[in-house]
Amino acid sequence: MTASSPSTTAAPAGPEAPRQTVSLYERWKRIHPLWVSGGWQTWRRVVLAVLVVVFYVNPWLRWNGYPGVRFDLVHRQFTVFWTTFVPEEFVLLAWVMLIAALVLFTVTVAAGRVFCGWACPQTVWTFVYFTIERFIEGDRTARMRLERGGWTLERLAKKALKLSIWAAIALSISITFLGYFEDLHELLPRILRFDLSKWEKIVILLPALGSFVGSAVLREQVCFHMCPYARFQSVMFDHDTLIISYDEARGEPRGHRRREVDYKAEGLGACVDCHKCVQVCPTGIDIRKGLQYQCIGCAACIDACTDVMASLGYGKSLVNYTSQNRQAGKKVHVLRPRLIGYSSLILVLLGLFTFALDHRTPVHLTVIRDRNRLYRERWDGEVENVYTLRIQNRAKEPRDYRVVVASELAVAYVGPEVVEVAAGSLASIPVRLVLDGEHAASAVTSEVRFGLRSVAEGTVEGEGIAIDEASRFYLPTRSAP
Ligand code: SF4
Ligand code: SF4
């Protein structure tokens, strides 16, 4: 057997026993979860529905002409909660991501895998695809029967309908996702007219394929084998982290019984071994075997067992949200060092972020020198340097800026005196500095400072905006006379 082989050959037990090939990989068994209703599932479905609506609606929303979230790669502007950042402010955007990651860690320490079961995009879309599947093919038993049966006309028709709707959903997800990078108001009409470039088609089809394969077909396999967060989040758990757990003390010994018998007198626990908690599980595990990394904390097994216990009059569910300490009857700690540490860090970062946001300048100026020529000598001896002023107006209204130049040299500025920049936009203005021929021979290079001053209704420096950016002015090298 080679090192990469997925199977191995077992040694024969005796001289006549045939050699047996044993696969090192577990066969993928399709999971057909049973639909379950109940308190947790109602809340969970509300949360999932809200997330789906937010995802679809957000790219269309405008607040004073701004999208809520947009990563405009072409114009290099990143808008998060109606605040636009430019690449120079990437550190602020990194802070937002850091704070979001810390919030996720804090939630995990406190409530375990609640993100996985209630808010992860993979869970959300798997639920959407699964709901469509259930609507077309029926619930668990009908789906399993359909799967086991041959390729009848009914099966073909149902599969074709399901796959077509899945494909349409995947495309809608992909197009909406693109709306977080491009303006959907402009993109969607072009999509409907099939007026797309090759790259746009690829950018739409690839995420659609990813969603179709990942969330509709592979489902729980993505959580098991592809998601890195599923693997490392257990190290954040402590004995007070909320987990979903089976009450072994009440449930065991499990076993079937007649409804009218006193199960305690028969030496049985409350678990009737009905397997409902296993049948509803989207990852196909048996929570009665203890906490497993495959459990995404969706709480479906809680609702399933609640139903069973209620129908038998046995009291509350055997599966519940609890913690290891609570289960062992030990003292429960709501405030723990790790929780306090993460929360304090979030507060500090939020404070610093708010301060930085509040103190950031509402305009940004970048001066780019002409990269092709350091200077240009004119026929009359004058020397000119060419620049591009990139003015980023971060304000939510259009602004006028007066351009000023300061230099030791007597350079003349050739360009617009006042530049108007639309709200949240970037203007690139080519300008020139010209030095009289008489002065041109005296130096090789000198610092020049470009500045912007705000211009409010008829008054100069109306809002006190004053920013400067240094650059260089180059002159020809001349030998002494
Ligand atoms: S649903 Fe409850 S009673 Fe049924 S097998 Fe699971 S734990 Fe036992
Ligand atoms: S064990 Fe329960 S909570 Fe965990 S994934 Fe399965 S149904 Fe959801």
What does this structure look like?
The protein is an alpha+beta fold and 481 residues long. It has two domains: 27-360, no CATH class; 363-474, Sandwich (Immunoglobulin-like). Helix content is 40%, strand content 20%. Strands 8, 9, 10, 12 and 14 form a five-stranded antiparallel β-sheet that branches. Strands 11, 13, 15, 16 and 17 form a five-stranded antiparallel β-sheet that branches. Helix 4 (121-137) runs antiparallel to helix 6 (153-178), helix 4 (121-137) crosses helix 8 (198-218) and helix 6 packs across helix 8. The chain is elongated and about 110 Å long. The relative contact order is 0.10. Residues 1-5 and 457-462 have low confidence and may be disordered. Bound molecules: iron/sulfur cluster (2 copies). The site of one iron/sulfur cluster has 16 residues, from helix 12 and helix 13.
List of distinct ligands in this structure: iron/sulfur cluster
Strand content: 15-25%
Number of domains as seen in the coordinates: 2
Instruction: Provide a count of the helices.
Output: 16
> How many E-type strands?
17
Radius of gyration: 33 Å
